[in-house]
Specification:
There is one protein chain. The protein has about 350 residues and is mainly α. The protein has one domain. About 80% of the residues lie in helices and about 0% in strands. It has helices at about 5-10, 20-45, 50-55, 60-85, 90-105, 110-125, 130-160, 165-190, 195-215, 225-265, 275-285, 300-310, 315-330, 330-360; strands at about 1-5, 220. A two-stranded antiparallel ribbon has the order 1-2. α7 (about 130-160) packs antiparallel against α8, α10 packs antiparallel against α11 and α11 packs antiparallel against α12.
Amino acid sequence: MTADIGEAAGTVAPRRGWFGPRKFASVAAVATVVGLLMVLPKVLGTSWNPVGTVLSQVPLNGLVLLTALWFAGLWSYAWVLTAALPGLTHRQALMLNLTGSAVANVAPFGGAAGVGMNFAMARSWRFTKSNFATFTAVSNLWDWLGKLVVAGGVLAWLLVSGTLTSGPMVSAVRTAVAVLAVVLLALVSALTSDAVARSCGALTDVVVGLVMRAVRSPRRSALAESLPQLRVAAIQVIHARWLQMSVAVGGYLLLQALLLGTCLHLLGADVPVAAVAAGFAVERLLTLVPITPNGAGFAETACAGMLIGLGGEPVQVAAAVLLYRGFTFLLEIPVGGIGIAAWLVQQSRRRRATALVTAT
């Protein structure tokens, strides 16, 4: 979906210095995450010492329960991936999910690198480029729709039920619901209309072009032409597998909400179910922020702020949110890294075996 500017125009990309714009963006993103997490307790009205003390009191059986909930969520989401890519096994789906997340979670705008990792794996399993392109579009679309629908529904319910009492919080939630409605309308329109899909692709091409020029990258986007074609292929998969994907993504989000609620309960921050739902909704929304990997820093702050605003104790809430994000964000990095290493070893053995057969 991208093309080299050098191939298109016969030019050579400018030489980059040792600390170019992309490296600067990476450093800035890491600094943002570290800065937000460092000031998180202070923003929430506490400090790191009591938060660390509470975290150290998590019982072993509690960690086992949290690990089981985390893995159950991954297993549920794997059904979305197997539906989006017919022929994909559950084991392969888990591998794609964890390895892609491991790569994406260590760099700003790391989603593209994660997709590249997944593409290499899918090709090694004999899936075609067009199959993978459709898979990527459908699985990401269902992930976004799941987060937007659940978050929008929860936040709208909070407004209607009168659960929110703080004026600034009410205003912020109203704005968020309005933005969510616009985004959902745009996604559905792009999915159901060829003209809208082409317009969205053209707009994305312009935005990507500006970003690529800013970071001096030779890559360019061509979504104005490819997005309508991809839309047709995606609709075919959605028509056949929408129910499986919807149930799976719903189960995945429910298990993640249960994971957050269990973290809060284990650390003594027993807040109402409505508060857990509200904290989870804003956390899932902020994971879509591309400035930092998986919205790191922003997601934790917003989630904890919402929970405290709805009656949670700052120390216990801060510790519980960090524990929750430790599972949904940090744990994916080493586990996914092990998966990448195992796949690379497997590929190396396959190449040696092929070379041996060829030689004989």
